[in-house]
Write a structure and sequence with these properties.
This protein is mainly beta. It has two helices and ten strands. The protein has one domain: Porin (Beta Barrel). This is Secreted protein.
Amino acid sequence: MMKRHHLRGIPVFLGALLAMLGTVSVTGARPASAAPLVDITCPMGSQVGTYSPGLTYEPREVAFEANGNVSGCVDLSGNGIAGASFSGAGHGTASCVTGSVSNSTTYHWSNGRHSVVTGTGAINVKPNGITVLVLTGTVTSGLFTGATVVQTKALLNSDLTACLTPEGLTSVGGPITLTVAL
């Protein structure tokens, strides 16, 4: 029989253990209502994108291409990812002020693997010619299949008058961030 003073620390230990486990159930799965865990965060990156036809203040159907990279990644997935290069293409109705697009992007991870992401994006213009574009998609093939990917871009329009011309704004670039949630 154990002495009572040896059992005093058990409630504290069990409380700490349960706090570490959080919302994990007995089977190890997260409840369906739990938010996805962010497994990769890449806080630094840049992108250059082109639009055809160029963006004007009048919404119209456009196609776009984007190329860039992300770095400084914090990888909790255990895949050894420090960064990635990416290229994407899409289309949608957009203007220099707002828009909605569909896209497909391929990420080439620093560990030699790749992910193909398909999704949608929303354009929202902020003061001083900064266009914020948030692309949300699902990994359809490659590493992290089924995961949700969010890429947030702050695209800096260095030619504020381009939107007023018939040709429109044809290229823009700026910093981006990336998260992958399983």
